[in-house]
Amino acid sequence: MSDDLRWRRMPGFALIYFMGQFGSQLLNQIPLIAASLVAVVSFDSLPLPHVAIMLLLLVVLSGLASYLSFSYIQQRDRFLVRRGIFSRERIELPFARIQNINIKQPIYYRPFNLVILGLDTAGSAGKEIEIAALSYGDAERIKETILHWRAESPVRLEGESVAPGGEPLEKGNLLVRRSVKDIVLHGFTNNRAWLLLAVVAPFLQRLEQQLAEALGALDVNVQGWLAGQDALSLSVLATVLLIALFAIFSTISIVGALLTMFGYRLYFDCDTYIRKSGLFNRYEIRVQKRRVQTVQWAQTWMDTLFARANVLLEPFAVNGNESRRYFMQKIMVPSLTYREAKALIEYQCAGLDWQGLVFQRIHPLYILHKMVFSALPLACLAAVWMRGNWYLGFIVGVGVVLVCALLIFVRWLRYGVAVAEGYVFLRSGFIGQKIFCVPTFKAQQLSFIQSVFQRRRALADLKLVTASRTVVLPYMSADLAERLLDEVLADVEFSGESWM
Amino acid sequence: MRSVVNRQIQELPRIRDIKSERVDRRYLVVSVLSVSIAFALLTSGGAVFLWMISERDVPWRWVSVLLAALWGLSSLYQVLAYRLLTYAVRQRDVSVTSGVVFRQTVVQPLTRLQHVELSRGPLERLFGLATLKLFSAGGAAHSLLVPGLPVERAERIKAFILDNKALDDE
């Protein structure tokens, strides 16, 4: 290992990376910039070519400045980095503290087979660095160096399972592979494209105007035509429109899923999960097994129709206090069959029998309390909103109560609590469902919560705080909640196992 | 759960057996005072606003009676909350029990602590009190606060925690 002590710049191709970074920052700000520009001058009088050239120049110049201001030294056991255009920053990144190594290949590096190496420590925010335009071999070599150094470092982190010879126990074990069909199914059942509506909504009015103008130009009298149709054909029209809308959004969602998850592979190597995927930009996410705090089984209502489930491995992701911040990306494994999902969860949770879990209903008083404290006030509000029209107010109030009752009842049906050797489970949801699996020794804090109403019926909520999420087991018998709390506490305080 | 082998039965923590104690009496004064100050600021602001926008005479007598009643109620609530606020320091955890309508006992195991801190606001300084803040990796939203401790007691608990447990720090 050469201990080169001169500050080095990245390869020249990294210039594209810096420009790309600034460019994408700029893109994120476009609504803001556009709004402020339009506020100052009217859109028509804007000299668009000039603006475009200015922006391009800005991107190139700032990319160049960032490129020139970033330099680094790779020493035997650490990286030293200097960066920053106006406020200079020196970062020291010892290999032993590096929690996450990822290799990305953006589309513009594809032709040259170059990659970006990302390194970060979980301990502190803003101390992550990326080294761009490395050849794949170089990136792999640096990664190996870091992993190797960590393996033989005297301050090796506890619980890292490396065999005595220094050889990893398992090498590149492929756990999960997703076909295009699976990804398409995932895009279809986990539709996030509806979120786009919120973004598009402001422009809809203008679109409507333009549509009306266009139709006017074609001399089509829409309103007149609509008035001439009977109820049946109108409802058919509405249904067709709805289906078309559904198809459009599903397509967007499927395309999105394919972009990010094409060629999905989940490997397990050296006690680390490695997720690789992506159509144009290839992503790699690594999470060490012992960093996983909770495991989630998630199904949307459409997933339940296709008998598929997503499994999420959730490492710590919380803000500690000002000085420390933990954040690692979750690993989401999409659209698994029940058998595959079960196998993956049991792979992560040693000694767990997923099939043998018995979920117990929570106390039905949950329904009554939710009705009294959330549905009734809502119904009263809705009734009052009808302003003095008592008849209508009554109808609306009863309607709200009925709908809420149905929702609360369905939710109550879904709630379930299960306890197994070393694990606590919570199932919740409406038609879709989520099951959270919490290893008891990963608990950070516990709460026993009891309202005066619950106390009368000897019921209680138990809250388990982990470093990845908080799970509340509601309306359990106070006795069980207390016993469970004692047992979890004993695991945390006496097992001596580290949570990370 | 994990088996109880190798573990002394009497060692097992039991939430039912926690012997908790009330926080310092001065904390009641501090909490009533701070509520009153907040109340005074809010109502004086509101009164000025009312005086500025209203064209007719404001029924000041009734307004002040109402405000006094509200102030009395919130102070009463503070008294109640104080009487129901207890804490306990055990060998391996710290717990706080609080709440009037929703009673909750929060237990923070020492093995999961990241960071311990004493904080003292102006009123607390005036009365020689301190708040002990315990941070875990559960996040800032779930840091456990033990308010109303006399300074020397708070320092002793902090020292005990630091002694007992080299904080969960890499």
Description:
The complex is a heterodimer of chains A (500) and B (170). Chain A is α+β, with helices and mostly antiparallel strands. Chain A is built from 14 helices and 21 strands. Chain A has helices at residues 14-28, 30-40, 48-69, 136-152, 180-189, 194-217, 222-227, 231-261, 301-306, 338-348, 365-385, 390-414, 452-456, 478-494; strands spanning 71-74, 78-83, 89-94, 100-104, 114-120, 129-135, 173-177, 265-269, 272-277, 283-288, 292-299, 308-315, 319-321, 324-325, 331-337, 416-420, 423-428, 433-439, 445-451, 459-465, 470-477. In chain A, strands 15-12-11-18-17-16 form a 6-stranded antiparallel beta sheet. In chain A, strands 7-8-9-10 form a 4-stranded antiparallel beta sheet, with no helix packed on it. In chain A, strands 1-2-3 form a 3-stranded antiparallel beta sheet. With 170 residues, chain B is an alpha+beta fold. Chain B contains 4 helices and 7 strands, in the order βααββββαββα. The two termini of chain B are 28 Å apart. The relative contact order of chain B is 0.15. Classes of the chains: A alpha+beta (500), B alpha+beta (170). At the A-B interface, strand 13, strand 19 and helix 14 of A face strand 4 of B. Strand 19 (445-451) of chain A pairs antiparallel with strand 4 of chain B.
Structure described in brief:
The complex is a heterodimer of chains A (about 500) and B (about 170). Chain A has about 500 residues and is of the alpha+beta class. A six-stranded antiparallel beta sheet of chain A has the order 15-12-11-18-17-16. Chain A has a four-stranded antiparallel beta sheet with strand order 7-8-9-10, with no helix packed on it. A three-stranded antiparallel beta sheet of chain A has the order 1-2-3.
